[in-house]
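Appendix B. Extra example for self-study. Work through it before the problem class; the solution is given directly after the inputs so you can check yourself.
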Amino acid sequence: MGSKEVGRRDFLKYGISLVGTGVLGSQLVYPLDPVYAQTEKKGKIKDPIRIGAQATLSGPFGGYGQFMKMGAQLAVDEINSSGGILGSKVEIEFRDEELKPDVAAKNARYFVDDWGADFLTGLDASSSALGVGAIMGELDRVLIVTHGATEKLTENLVYKQGIKQIFRISVPVYQDGIAAAIVAKDFPAKRWVTIGADYEYGHTAWNFFKATLKKLRPDVEFVEEAWAKFLTSDFGAHITKVMAANPDGIYSTQWAGEAVTLIKQAKLFGVFDKIQTWMTPMGAAMDVLEGLGKEYPEKAWVTCRYWFQYPDTPENKAFVARFYKRWNKYPHYVSETTYSAIYAIKAAVEKAGTLSTPEVIKALEGMTLMTPAGKRYIRPEDHQAVYQVPWGRITHNPEYPFPTLTDLKVIPAEEYFRKPPFVEA
Amino acid sequence: MKPYTLIGLCLLIVVLMVLPLLVSRFYLYITLQVLMLSLFALGFNLLFGYTGLLSFGHAAFYATGAYATGLILKNVTNSLIPGVLGGTLVATLLALIIGFFCVRHTDVYFSMLTLAFGMMVYSLAWKWRDVTGGDDGLIGIPRAPLQIPGGLSFSMKAVSNYYYFVLIVTLLAILLLYTIVNSSFGLVLQGIRENSNRVEFAGIPIKRYRWIAFVISGFFAGLAGALLAPLENTVAPAAADWTKSSEPILASLLGGIHTFAGPIVGSALFILLKETVVRHTEYWLLVYGIILLLILLGLRGGVVGALIQFKAKAKR
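Solution. Structure tokens for the complete assembly:
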């Protein structure tokens, strides 16, 4: 990612602006609650404090895992070089979840029962997050999910089944479906279609999108759906099918390499000359931006789970600068979420003054944290971190070696996060 | 069975019985995985090693057992035995239907048919979202208590309790399969493998025998899956994937397909090797693949087969 030249210039720019704010050397993730600082007790609690992390490290989505590792490593190194957590060093180990829930569950058991993990984090696939989530009551450690986006994790496992050990620091599928509809309501487009990812994520996101948009704009129609199975490489049939319905807008839930392939092929079919708007929720992920590069059409509206240019705060700028300095790359959203998750663990342990799981859960519930992605409030009911990520339109900015976002639309999280008791959409 | 084999076996069972006192919860879990894969591979090997039919789709029965048990425990009864038995029964019924079509063919045609049926079940698990939960999987399966008629109820919340349940079920199932393969029925199956024409000329309806073997094989795969659901509390379509079907094949080949104990030894090797390699390198898939290749190429007849040959040579 990132040619060195451009990156260095950019880094300097950040560096200069940061000297002014004085935030470069300090901690970027910290709790904002007034109750904080209540504990200055005991000696060392346990050394080292161990965090078991999982990501997809192999196969077509292996790049995600590498980005997650970078974010995690940065946080761990920062914490250890500034005194650790209550004086204890932090140790992290990564395992490959292979996008398979049984493998993820086994890894979690290994981490807790054999390696001696005090916390678990990571997890890319929704099914892996659910597979590990299901056994967290039994393992009784705090798990902070940093990517897997299914609403079932927090709505079903935490809120309805009461598995309180589960937390999620990244935005769930509300970002992909509900926020997308709130953005789409201001577009002139009336006839919407989807080229959907034919699995839980694609269907759930499209259902949220339809339900929300229909409420906000009763005049829109949903005229066609084409579902592509996991790892599709030829979208010709899907594109032809939806274009036959003469749509104004296309909503597509492909991500990573599939999103790149789909958009390239849609261009070949001349889709972008015929439609008004294209929306791809995970289209602002670094891998898609780099994969499409200059070919990324400016009609595309995209988002992700953290956008490195938002918010415009000293904490975020310092994070991007530090990340760039360490890895010579701009942070992917999983880098930020995992970085923040590790700091959330630190904040919770410092607040609780112990590693006891019920105490740490209590410390995390209702906590507000300052993070690179902005203020995150951890809802006590479903343990979902509430913060907002903007939607934006693709633009080609010569300052960066990849396309960036413009016309940012920031919707307050309260408007698009589903709330307990989570009635059907 | 020779006396010292019997003594060794008794020792092994005693060790397995006291295992929860000796090892941590994680190794108990690994042992559970070995037990479940053993059942799965033993059932598979009744078709492969004994009858000469290579199935590429046995995960269909494994997954059906797991999903059906999950659905029963979630929606019908919160009692372990009816859940596990019910799930196994559904898987067996499926084997009855799929087997009916598959045993009409042999060799690669049989293998391809089983692969096709296997992937059908996989697609069903993936797409029938209202029932299976799609790729998110069936979540919230309880590890139901073991209720025995007469009012006794044992909690299965602790893994060690569930371990004993799985261990006893597995031992009983292995005993059952051992009886089957050493009966005249088992002998006919081996006859079919060696020379199906001769067996047919002897007046034996080989298709029916293959069909019965297929159903028994499906029963064991289903039972393995049924035991999985309450342990993991979740079942996802990966349980029906063809890569899952390859696990009993590899385990059987590793251990040796022409011995009864081969698949059990192979299952233990398969899981323990992976567990060891994963700890040492991020590129475990490569290392693991090479080790499996070396064993498969170096020890013809698998580990158990090679041991028997070695002993025979030593005697001479």
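Self-check: The first strand of chain B starts at residue 138 and ends at 139. If your reasoning did not lead you there, revisit section 3.
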